[in-house]
């Protein structure tokens, strides 16, 4: 074997440059993909050596197949083995999480990494990352972008073959967002150089012809040359190597057997006996498997290591490569393999190995062992279902493969597996397995449970119609358990709400509440939140608040799974509709804390969505854009794509308000791409943002065509103007612009009824008056709208009413019009609504008055490099430049860390910098405070 890396100069140079950047304070990641034996591990070791030589700490670990069900073990193992050792990660020791939920562990890990990286650059290396555990995979999706501004470099290697494993999905996710290092086979010159390095001599045509059968795979070449040397079929004469003999290896397996054949019988038995193990082993384990005493193995171990088949590292002994390992394992006969696996299972149990590892050995130890394995797999799946649903699903799939088709209880196992696959967002697999079981015929209770899993899977994927159909089929089953019935009603309520069937949604929400209140409070809470959504969509704002408040009180009182439904998200939504903004903000803040503590990651994107809506209402557009951007990033990290669609809709609206139509179009394209996969969302979250973009592009007729259903159904479905009162005058303006007074009148009448139904709402009263004033050109209605909006905290709604009042008053009362104009302009500038301000200037800029806002003028004195930053971005930049971590900045600014991440990404982009060190230098140079 040779330690020199041949044929990978380009890859090594890339890694060295990246590590040099990390040493200077820049973070980032690299994904290395390739087939087994292509040289990934060698490159990882070389990168680690280079980093350590350049004073970059290195945390490295190889992921193992059986660690997949052990939450965070891959990352914890790497960081606890950090060199030099780091006390910051000591809390990650097994059994000492210190937190109540897995997402909280990720949050704490992020804080530890930010704190450590502030003192020293860090390289994190994960080999065989396709096997990493599910929580580590989720953590890496969260941490890689979150720590992009810190000197943390991630280097992950895995096989290029696609799998359902969470680790491979994360590798692919990162590869799609960067430029992966794809290792290919060696070319002919590199192959020749490798042969010369291995043999210490020039090589002739016989050697090159022999290794050509290895297809340029470095490991296969090295193993072949090792076999030829050990069997003395390589002759070196006059500095040139030649192949001699007739009995030459014909395959990789043959080369491994040839190397084995040169060892003593006892050394061969050592290697074969330990081949049943999937992780490094110690001498005591090898002795147990061989039926020997440890003291007698030292010479045998030296012999095996000298052959290159085994290697020794800090964790013990291991096979030099998986391909070699597998080739030797395949030489075991059935009886011997069963005996060794049974012994390995006992050893794994004694050493406290993961249950999945014990069960895997039992599955290969004979019929009795397989039966015990199935029981263990089911128990293990149940224990990790919350923290690692994908790993739990894989455990159940293993158990299903080991169980006869006619085995009692198999259908219940399928139902459980479908639910786990759904929770892991493996929707196609869940549906395929579930449909297969349904075709086989099930008794009603089992069928209902299975259909519940399918409905939850479909709802998670945003396939609301399919979710509703599965739920309806489940509810039609006779004599099903009340908890299952309650959960089916709750899923049905939310699915039908997004299918615009409000009556059915409200009925199902009521049934979920009634059925689940005593036995399944989580379903009752979820049903009540659906009723809150329906009430708000129908314009019954007090009812929306009442249902959400009841759900929140029930969750607080009963705890457990009810809290995991996070009713405060919908409570904040109802409070926002009622203009109770401070209360809504407190509800969102507490909801975010609960989600982090409980580890319910799915709630985070939804919290960002409703936070963005609140901030838009308050005219804080920079913060709203950061919230929505953070929500999109997080939803995609979690593969919760159904939440990505409404968040993208929000970003489209914000981009239009801020005057960036190019960015709005990019968000539109991403939304269209997602919806083409079958994801559905409320029309208010899709059609209305697209209509605002089309209108801003100068096509009001196209905008009206796109949302004509919103106009035509606004009497019985006033959802848009309830959730977004600013849309009321916008709808009227569009219709009036193209001469469609009928649709404009319909909006005005609906807005008036909505305001009458909610007499305490100044916002709805203002929106109704604004719409009427626009349609009928009645200045007194616009003045009424202005008066109503002054009683709320909705500056954009007020600015638009002021603008329209200025337009109608500029002839009759020029002084009042100038005052209206100036105030509107000031409000829009303060909010960062550049697009709205441009429309104001285009319509009324010919007589703009004397009070052009100072904020719109160039800053006095020399321009600053920080001028392009928004006020929110500047706040974040100044705090981070002092050395504060993102999490600490988030605490000080009362923001989510993801929102701070979003602001910081924009700061780096605008200032064209790549590290916190550069940011600190800019701030110092500008003398900013």
TrEMBL record:
Q: Which CDD domains match?
A: LuxR_C_like
Keyword list (alphabetical) reads: ATP-binding, Nucleotide-binding
Q: Where is the HTH luxR-type domain?
A: 862-927
Q: Which GO terms describe its cellular component?
A: cytoplasm
Recorded hits in SMART domains, A to Z, give:
HTH_LUXR
Query: Is this entry keyworded ATP-binding?
Result: yes
Record protein name field: ATP/maltotriose-dependent transcriptional regulator MalT
What is the protein's species of origin? Paractinoplanes brasiliensis
Upper lineage: Bacteria, Bacillati, Actinomycetota, Actinomycetes, Micromonosporales
